[in-house]
Specification:
mainly alpha; globular
């Protein structure tokens, strides 16, 4: 099953999600832990929905 934004929560603007993504990368020093990677993937899907685009899941990231 592919991740999708929770429809019961109002969609945040892409710029807000983008700032969260940037902050995650700053905090991690450019090297994401497995937990950070999951958060990044979730944020990326949320950003794509807010921006009206689609994203391709990372290769080898079938497990959820």
């Amino acid at each position: 099953m592919s991740p999708s934004p929770n429809t019961s929560v109002p969609m945040r603007p892409a710029s807000v999600v983008n700032e969260e993504i940037r902050d995650l990368w700053r905090r991690s020093g450019g090297l994401l832990s497995p937990e950070d990677e999951r958060e990044y993937q979730r944020l990326l899907v949320e950003w794509a929905a807010a921006a009206g685009t689609s994203v391709r899941p990372a290769v080898g990231n079938e497990a959820g």
